[in-house]
Amino acid sequence: MPAVTETIDTVQSLTEGTYKYGFETDIEMEFAPKGLNEDIVRFISKKKNEPQWLLDWRLKAYAGWLKMEEPLWAAVKYPPIDYQDAFYYAAPKAGPKSLDEVDPELLKTYAKLGIPLKEQAILAGVEGAGESPADSGRMPIAVDAVFDSVSVATSYKERLGKEGIIFCSISEAVQNHPELVRQYLGTVVPQGDNFYAALNSAVFTDGSFVYIPKGVRCPMELSTYFRINAKSTGQFERTLIIADEGSTVSYLEGCTAPMRDENQLHAAVVELVALDDATIKYSTVQNWYPGDAEGRGGIYNFVTKRAQCRGKRSKVSWTQVETGSAITWKYPSCVLLGDDSVGEFYSVAITNNRQQADTGTKMIHVGKRTSSTIVSKGISAGRGQNTYRGLVRVAPTASNARNFTQCDSLLIGDQCGAHTVPYIENRCMTAKTEHEATTSRIAEDQLFYCRQRGMTQEDAVGLIVNGFCREVLKELPMEFAVEAQKLLQISLEGSVG
Amino acid sequence: MTAPLHTGAEGFLHRFDGLRTRLPGARLGWVQQLREQAAESFRAQGFPTRRAEAWHYTDLRQVADAGFDEPLSILGAAKTLPAPHGAWRAVFQDGRFRDDLSSLDAAPFVAASLAAGLGTLEDRLGALARPAAEPMAALNTMLFEDGLVVTVPAGVAGGVLDLLSLGSATDRPAAFHPRHLIRLEAGASLTIIETATGPAQARYLHNPVYEIEVGEGATLTHVRLQQESPRAFQLGTLYARVAAGGTYDNFTLNAGGKLVRNEIHASLDGPKATCHMNGAQLLRDGQHADTTTVLDHAAPDCASRQTYKTVLSGRSRGVFQGRIHVHQVAQRTDGYQMNQALLLSPEAEIDSKPQLEIYADDVKCSHGATVGEIDADQLFYLRARGIPEPKARSMLVEAFLAEAVEVVQDGAARAALEAAVNGWWEAAA
């Protein structure tokens, strides 16, 4: 959890360009040789002690990737990426051990980021640090911490294990639950799905694995915290979540990286599978380093996230707050296969300075009476470019399907851009789709009203922006919502006045 | 004996090779240059495929694969003409001006054949069309054979001009590429009611390009009734530029044709210019109709309104793509776009892509899109009052369409539209 509470005053004292997670951890690392080739794929697979089938799977993805072309259709501009000029594997030398043996440097890093790896710890600030979860009456949060290419710790494993829940790094899952990994890996996002998914399939290093057994309601929030630390590395995590019949899980994801002048690539794949009556709630606060005011540095966040609602009455809800990254290319999607299944997408995306975001969702209706809701709020400031791109497709089989989409854009300053590109494809007579989109700037009268009551310009903008995003923020788990609100404010620093 | 027909882009280029010395303007250097450049870009682009974003939902293979012929003279002889909608009429057959059927002499504006007056049009022809960007405009520029040139002098109220385009039934399907140039000078006004039609069995390609200039404070109302033969193709590209305080009001009804595309590029170039782009698509059987609009807000304080409605029955497929582009200078833009589709058949398909691209901050832009079948509650309401189901359904469809038509202000234009909508509905029922 990047949830570090500070007073609004502290937030405001931050000047433009201060990215509070921009520090670097000095720790002894092990790298694969620079560059990308079949040997690197083999190296990663060997490092992870993977079975032959997985190596073959990676090699097949790599061979496919070589033949693919980088997609250029998104409304983002960046110089060509040299895929040979990066490390595809970087891990702290001391391998992952039990929670008590984690390198103190790493613990310090996560402490600085506000991530409680110690099981008794709870989120600082929400209830006051030091209290135990039992005292506060608040559920603890289980964390899987991924540092560059590997998972360094996962908390509450045993407690979750008692319920039959598997929560571990995907590398561990490959060792301990190969049958589950083999059954589901790549079934939602196939190896050759797109350029970045193929690259990920070839070189993915770690990520989280979640399996919730039949009928189990996961007793705590599960979360993964991704940290890119090493220079010239790419992070390629792979997350796989399976919610078996009648189960429920809420999963959170956070990410940060040091401030650097170089651009680092983050190409993740997330696959969600919801069986009959299962519910998965997936929340993201994406706060990768966005680059400086001039657009130097920052993460390229090219991510494929997709859920399959395979079961009847299954439900997947994506909530994302996208404040970081130099470039975001991300479309968390739902394939609604099961009858009466439900897909939701709630998104806030902010671009400030030179950030570019092309993000949205796909809702593919196949099952009968499937329904989907899309609420997207885009905020552009500085020289930021923000695009909502979404697809709603209704197959002839999806009788009485229903979609509602709302995309609102807010412009702050006259150098930024806000774009809306929805695709609606309906092949079913009894289906009903509705789409509406608006673009406007912060209304003068709203600002005047706030200013008149003694608020500073910046506070007033913060208040109005929070109101604008409310519909989405209320979908976030409480701790994330607190954090997200503050992030919004920080992200817009320097954009007004 | 007929020579084997070349198909695809190759066929058009091949015929251009044979025709280049016989097309209008063959002796005018600038016309030749325009045609050659267009041929080059058409050669480079070919027929657009679905891989091109602008053509993602419309597959032109059936047009490309049909072997066409560009006739050098009028093929058919129009027997009976539909009654004119206005006092002045310009008639085109197979893309060529029919002086004998037209009545323009007493008009308060200048209207004449493009082929006849080509020598004087160097500054107008190609002023707005972009053959390098739009392949169908390239095809038109390469092969245009005629067109209508209209100039309404400053301050003149031009009244209603009826523009009739007739396709002919021929052994070999004909392709014609008329180029219409319409200019309204400052403060002028004109209503154009355009009908494109052809005999039921006729198979042809009608590929018009319009270059429309609306001067300061001028108002052009442009109603297009596309009622082509059910076997015909129409791929029209319209470019309009509106100066300060001017209004361009376009309504396009797509009711005929086998595969139809109505592509409009309008640019609001001066402050307080206004553009209305509205339309209805009434589709049945295996018809495919595509309305694609690009609205450029290139000046401050402009307003635009778009409402498009599509009714689909049979195996028809409707496409709506609408993009509003607000440039950075276009502060205080007010843009609105709505497109709605009513599905009457389980085999119909609608694809919709409303798009906003905004680079100015002081704007108010919105769009909406809905797709659905006839509302069950409304149907129940009517049936509960003793109205039989078929009648109730037809009332609801009519009401859906009435909303599209009622935005048309001009009386004559609206009457023409209502007649066309009723005609389609009677034929469908």
Automatic annotation (TrEMBL), chain A:
The species this protein was found in: Siccirubricoccus deserti
GO terms of biological process kind: iron-sulfur cluster assembly
Name of protein: Fe-S cluster assembly protein SufB
Domain SUF system FeS cluster assembly SufBD N-terminal: 154-218
Name of the coding gene: sufB
Family to which this protein belongs: Belongs to the iron-sulfur cluster assembly SufBD family.
Domain SUF system FeS cluster assembly SufBD core: 226-468
SUPFAM superfamilies: Stabilizer of iron transporter SufD (SSF101960)
NCBIfam families per UniProt: PRK11814.1, sufB
Organism classification: Bacteria, Pseudomonadati, Pseudomonadota, Alphaproteobacteria, Acetobacterales
From TrEMBL, chain B:
A GO biological-process term: iron-sulfur cluster assembly
Occurrences of domain SUF system FeS cluster assembly SufBD core (ranges): 174-400
Domain SUF system FeS cluster assembly SufBD N-terminal residue range list: 28-70
Native organism: Siccirubricoccus deserti
Pfam families: SUFBD_core (PF01458), SufBD_N (PF19295)
Protein name: Fe-S cluster assembly protein SufD
Family: Belongs to the iron-sulfur cluster assembly SufBD family.
Cross-referenced SUPFAM superfamilies: Stabilizer of iron transporter SufD
Entries under NCBIfam families matching the protein: sufD
